[in-house]
Structures are given as C-alpha cells and as structure tokens.
Write a structure and sequence with these properties.
Layout: E1 6-11, H1 15-30, E2 34-35, E3 44-49, H2 54-69, E4 76-81, H3 82-87, H4 90-94, E5 100-103, H5 110-119, E6 126-128, E7 145-148, E8 151-155, E9 157-158, H6 169-173, E10 177-178, H7 181-193, E11 198-202, H8 218-229, E12 235-238, H9 248-256, E13 260-265, H10 273-279, H11 285-298, E14 303-310, H12 317-330, E15 334-339, H13 357-380, E16 386-395, E17 398-402, E18 414-417, E19 425-433, E20 438-442
Parallel strand pairs: 1-2, 1-3, 3-4, 4-5, 5-6, 8-11, 11-12, 12-13, 13-14, 14-15, 18-20
Antiparallel strand pairs: 7-8, 9-10, 16-17, 16-19, 17-18, 19-20
Helix pairs in contact: 7-8, 8-9, 12-13
Length: 462
C-alpha cells in the first residue's frame, strides 16, 4: 500500500451510493488511510459508479477515463459500485490503467481489494466480484449512513425483488436484503447523539423492508422502533415506497408519531393501465389515487412526491394524455420525470415500438410544465403560514433550508430573509411562493440564530 496512505473517493449517482461511499471511507480510514482533498493528492482513488441508465453509465466512464489519464506512477484507481457490478472485467478494456474493479454488493471488501492490488505480480486489473451478495450480512460494523449537515441518509436495505420491466437494479444489486432492525436502531441512536435533526430512510423499496426476515409490515414496525429509539431526532422521512405496498398500519404509524413526517416518496411511473402493465408495475392508477386520498385524510398536510417515465415503448399520445390527466387529478406536491432508457438485460429491452427521442423530450416538457403550475398553486397555499425549516446554508443575503415537504437534493427549498445558522431548526413565516421554492422570514419573536425546536404538531392543509 502507498506509504503516504491517502485516498480520494468520488461518488456518482443516488443517495444510496453516497451511503456506500461513506461506509467505504470509514473502512479506509480504519485501515490507516487519510482523506485527500483532490485526486491529484491521493494514492488511492475510488470511483463509486452509477449504471442505472445510459447517461449515468457515460458519466461514470468519462470520470474513470479522465482520472486514468491523469494517473501518476504508484497511484491506484479503483472502479466500485453499479457500473463495476454490471460490466465486471470488461471495464478494464474500456478504461486502460484501471487497477481494480469491485461491485456494489461487496463494498465492504475495499481493504482486501487494496491488498490484492499491492500483491499482484504485474499491472493487471484486480476484478473482485464474488457471486453471492452479502449486503446486510457482512457490514464490518460500519455506520450505514451518510451525514450531510444536520441530515443523515440511513440505509435500511439493499437489492430489489420487484419485476419492473425497465429496471436493471435487481440484476445489479441482487435480491432484496433487509438490515437487522436492532442494527438500524443502534445507528439511529448514534446519529441522534451526533445532533442529527433528520433521518432519511433509504432502500430500493423501503416498503419491502423486513419481508426477507419474515416480517409483515416491516417498515411500520421499523418506524415504530425508530420513534422510540431516537425521540430527539426531529424528522424521519421515508423515500422510495412501492405502490400497493403502503399498508393501513404504515399510514396509522406515520399518523401516530409527530416526527414521522407526513411525506412520502411514491414512484408511480405512469398513469395509464396499459403502460403500467407493460412496465410490470401495479396497473390501477385509480387504486393509487384512492390510497393517496386515504393518506391525505389521515395525515393532514401530506406531501407526496412521485416519479414518472415518459416514452416507454409503445406509449401512445392517448396514453400520455391519460398520464397528464392523472397528474391533474391527483395534484402531486413534487414530480420527477425521466425519459425511458433502453437497458440491456431488462424485459422492456425486447419491446417493439420505441419512441423517438424528440417525442420523449416534448412529452417530458409538457408534463413538467403542467406540474410546475400545480406546484406553484400548492406552494401558494402556504403563504401566511408558519413552517419548521431545517437551515442548511446561505445563498447571497438569504438563509436556505428545507421544510418537511422537501427531501434533500430532489425537492425545493425555503429561502429565508435574515441570518439563521446552518443546523438550526427555525420557525419561518411564509411570505412568498415560487414554482418549487418558498420565501419566508423568521417568525416574529424568534431571534435569528436561535436553535428552535419544532412544535409537536403538523401544518394542516386547508
């Protein structure tokens, strides 16, 4: 291993990759390496890649090639994560100068991979891709969380067993493997003691948590455990729920604990039954609409985020118009929209009637224009009301934070007139609305800079 013992870790892709990167960093530092501020100063460079869709693969390959082209003698470059898992040893041909390849299922072997590189007889690429996934079973005691300011992403499971026709994640990540509940609760206590205000629960499918452990309603049970184990964490947020898997017990659990946020990320993917059947997704948009309505009745102020794919093979104009009608009817708070990407090895790769790229882009534009108007109308409902805002930084003369309606990185922000310190939980009166963001002032009577705890009640939407 290099004598100066410094590493640089580049993370591409989603927040789940961020957690894996932070876990690898903890292991590297246990092994005696120190973080370097930039690649040129590191002896070991690890790129945690993404391979979900073609643009993500291209970004990962570009980053690897650029770093390989700048490698100095004695410096090691390792490709980790999803692209490595998907391409294996083929990466060595595509990226000359690559020293190691390790897949997403064995991130915990990063020190062993360094030892293999050190012990090799020549400059050949070490390919470390054990066939059996061990996520959740062999974590080497590292914290499976990524702390960013006063928020922390906490991974509760990995892998996926859903049969979605468009998705390569099951092939990349393997089957769903839930982490032991006691381990998650212990980590929540650690994060609470570190002063974290917000836990963001991550998995490919959070609503599948515990199924492989023989649990029924495992996510609800986990949330109940977290509410008891970490009562000083103000917000607990659920991401990546699966339509049809949101149970009445889960809804009741969220309604029973004030710091379980009335927020749900529920990727629905489309609004027409025929497209959903081709996607191998739950195919009744009306059922999804009824479920959201039940949640809104039980959870005043509920914020619902969803995601849609446009341009799925065979998507007709009539089917796309049905999606627009679905969005108008349900009135989601947040919407992400993705262009369909044909992925080798998925069921949809063999479907006929691909949609032209210009049609996909035009449909995405129409959908997001519609949603922008809805988001603005929903945001205007908050003008004059008061929200709890987790302050994260400054933007010119404004403080910037997020309300319970805003997940980190993917949703909007609250722009606050005045000076509130990062990490504060502030009370903010909303004075203006933008399509995705809110504008507000610190509530009268509360001093700027005061670390204000939120009241134990939720904002109620009229």
């Amino acid at each position: 291993m290099p004598s100066s013992r410094r590493y640089f870790l580049l993370t591409l892709g989603c927040a789940k990759n961020t957690v894996d990167s932070d876990s690898m960093a903890e292991l590297l530092e246990r092994g005696g390496l120190l973080p370097a501020p930039r690649p040129a100063l590191a002896d070991v460079i690890v790129v945690n890649t993404c391979a979900f869709i073609e643009p993500a693969r291209e970004e990962s390959l570009t980053a690897l090639r650029e770093l390989a082209g700048k490698k100095r003698p004695g410096q090691w470059l390792i490709a980790a994560g999803c692209l490595s898992q998907r391409m294996g040893g083929e990466l060595a041909r595509l990226v000359p100068g690559l020293d190691g390849v390790m897949g997403t299922r064995r991130w915990m072997d990063v020190l062993a991979v360094l030892e293999e590189i050190r012990s090799r007889a020549d400059d050949s690429t070490v390919v470390h891709l054990p066939p059996a996934p061990a996520t959740g079973k062999d974590e080497r005691g590292v914290l499976r969380a990524a702390v960013r300011g006063a928020s922390a992403y906490l991974k509760i499971a990995d892998g996926c067993g859903r049969p979605c026709a468009f998705c390569a994640i099951p092939a990349i990540k393997g089957p769903a493997v839930s982490r032991p509940m006691e381990r998650i609760l212990d980590e929540a206590r650690v994060l609470q003691d570190r002063g974290v205000h917000e836990l963001v629960l991550l998995a490919q499918d959070t609503t599948a948590y515990g199924r492989d452990l023989g649990m029924r309603d495992g996510l609800a049970a986990l949330l109940e455990g977290l509410a008891e184990a970490a009562p000083r964490i103000d917000w607990i947020r659920v991401m990546y729920a699966f339509p049809g898997a949101v149970s009445d017990r889960l809804i009741d659990t969220m309604a029973s604990h004030p710091h379980l946020l009335p927020y749900l990320d529920l990727p629905l993917q489309h609004g027409h039954p025929a497209v959903l059947r081709r996607m191998r997704r739950p195919a009744d948009p009306d059922d999804a609409s009824r479920m959201i309505q039940r949640m809104r009745e039980r959870l005043p102020g509920l914020a619902v985020r969803t995601a849609f794919i446009v341009g799925f093979p065979g998507e007709s104009e009539i089917e796309f118009e049905a999606l627009l009608g679905f969005v108008r009817a349900v009135r989601f708070d947040r919407v992400g929209c993705f262009l369909y990407s044909r992925e080798e090895g998925t069921a949809s790769a063999a479907l006929p009637n691909d949609i032209a790229m210009e049609v996909k882009e035009e449909r995405r534009g129409r959908l997001m224009e519609l949603q922008q108007g809805i988001s603005l109308e929903e945001n205007r409902l908050w003008v004059g009301r008061t929200l709890d805002v987790l302050v994260e930084g400054r933007r010119k003369s404004l403080s910037v934070g997020r309300s319970y309606r805003d997940a980190p990185e993917v949703d909007g922000v609250v722009l606050i007139e005045g000076d509130a310190p990062p990490g504060a939980m502030a009370r903010v009166r909303v004075t203006g609305a933008l399509p995705y963001d809110l504008i507000g002032v610190l509530e009268e009577g509360k001093a700027a800079g005061e670390n204000i705890r939120p009241p134990r009640k939720r904002p109620v939407r009229d």
